[in-house]
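Render this sequence as a predicted structure.
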Amino acid sequence: MSHLAKALQCFITFSVLSCIVQELQTKKVIVKRYEQDILYYLQYSNQPKVGSSALVCNEFAIQWHFRLGHASLKFIKSLFSFVKNISKLECESCQFGKHHRTLFSSRVVNRCSSPFEIVHIDIWGSTRVKSVSDFSYFVSFIDEYSCIT
């Protein structure tokens, strides 16, 4: 509730049967929620127009966008008549979902500045087929600086 009040610049009043959200400066009622079966059901006193009311309208659309599994704005507008003035939904998850690939740096950054500072070692075996010298375990060493194996 405190996050909502700070974000919307409003104050919230609870009573036995209702919850009222009002604009901070004009005290205009933005949202009323009436308690029924221990839940507050949403009922708008009027359609959001400008100022913080438009922000409430956008927050409402985003909330339903999330609840409906990131539904499109066209679908949200078809459900709720008062969100017609919203041009786009700011959803970071949807933007990341539209990316085809992540970008990698074109330059490899070496983690070391001289040979043998970092050496990667891989030990594997025992193999069913032995080497010419009758070995069944193998070790590989890779120098990070020079990439020599």
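Summary. The CA atoms of residues 34 and 68 lie 23 Å apart. The first strand starts at residue 10 and ends at 14.
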